[in-house]
């Protein structure tokens, strides 16, 4: 099938479960494309001379090329091209905010023809690759003697491990949790990313010779110095897990919980883990009036999880309007379909209740100010415009900050920026400690999974360069060369 068929092929997304059905379970809400559907949607690509979609993708995926191969009925070749630039294409195809990245940059979208459904085709190719056995364990062309220790089994760590194992290095991944995957497993709900999709990737790495050391807290169970002695290079890919907290009166109540604690508990229940009712009942939204504070994708994960847990009602409080919301518009639309109520231009002013329970949230109504020179609108209070929202459970989804890594790892030479992220050399992933690298959110701050994948892959390239050049050159190499020349 030819491309440039956008004039006769209308945009179609994969089938989506209706709201009533999908809120009764945690299954993914979108179906996969059939081969015919994928081919027809891929054929809409205009094959632009300057592919804005590729420019809008953090991984610089060769999108027009694998769309063309999909349209021509050559899915295996399309997948091979897709996987050449991305180690987790079927995962990014599920959870990337394509409306803000590749699809939002699509020339068809900009010219009024509606974008190509790039993410759905990417997911289709990745799923088909697993189903047809195109994805096999990594078999390096050469086995190398050096080993790399990766701290963090999230997307950046997984991506780096894939690339480094392909190059033949011995790789060990250390993680504080009992399962590999990081936030892909315990942060993102299953209705966006079913856990078997992550497991087949982490299982492939294990089958490729990558070793996992789980339930391992670096700094307590094993020292950072021990890891440095054991491995030729270290990659820190821990992500950022310290949630920003409310700072309004009453925020210390037990009825106010952190988003990550809430989502982790829900995902643990999905795995069948037993829950301690006395200690963890406050993390269950069943039968409760829930208020989530925040406007990003984590906030959307929380409100949609609460709906599925059987909350009495769910509201989302955000200080700006919908047009200025940082989360994916697709996720906001899904939340609205599922019954979530949004309180736009509202900011928390006080938590109502006592130390043990909450009864509500006092909110301050806001308005947008005149745009500044960059077009950014500020917000200001509307005098006297306050109201109370009833609540039994308030969830803080205000973003994440880095933990104090130099203290956790007992490595004072590990320098950090003023934001607490690990400092690396400009344009590189080397930290200020020799042989130690860092990538993902712990370097760039809380960001998207696709950026973690990109940085994990790039960090692997930096580590390879370090191990094959700098590490093998003796400290007195220049002196030896000068002596040789003199003789």
Quick structural summary:
The protein has 487 residues and is α/β, with parallel strands linked by helices. 36% of the residues lie in helices and 15% in strands. Strands 3-2-1-4-15 form a five-stranded parallel sheet, sandwiched between helices. It has a five-stranded parallel sheet with strand order 6-13-7-8-9. A three-stranded antiparallel sheet has the order 10-11-12, with no helix packed on it.
Main traits of this protein?
487 residues, Fumarate Reductase Iron-sulfur Protein, Chain B, domain 2, FAD/NAD(P)-binding domain, 3 domains, 21 helices, 15% strand, disordered C terminus, oxidoreductase activity
Descriptive notes:
This protein has 21 helices and 15 strands. Strand 7 (289-293), helix 16 (297-308) and strand 8 form a beta-alpha-beta unit. The chain has helices at residues 19-22, 35-42, 52-56, 63-71, 75-85, 89-95, 102-105, 107-110, 118-131, 155-166, 183-186, 195-207, 224-230, 259-270, 277-280, 297-308, 329-337, 405-408, 441-444, 449-468, 477-486, and strands at residues 147-151, 170-174, 211-213, 233-236, 242-243, 256-258, 289-293, 313-317, 341-343, 346-353, 358-368, 379-390, 393-396, 400-401, 436-438. A 5-stranded parallel beta sheet has the order 3-2-1-4-15, sandwiched between helices. Strands 6-13-7-8-9 form a 5-stranded parallel beta sheet. The protein is globular, with a radius of gyration of 24 Å. The chain folds into 3 domains: 19-131, Alpha-helical ferredoxin (Fumarate Reductase Iron-sulfur Protein, Chain B, domain 2); 147-241 and 400-472, FAD/NAD(P)-binding domain, CATH 3.50.50.60; 247-396, FAD/NAD(P)-binding domain (3-Layer(bba) Sandwich), CATH 3.50.50. With 487 residues, the protein is α/β, with parallel strands linked by helices. The model is unreliable at 475-487 (pLDDT under 50).
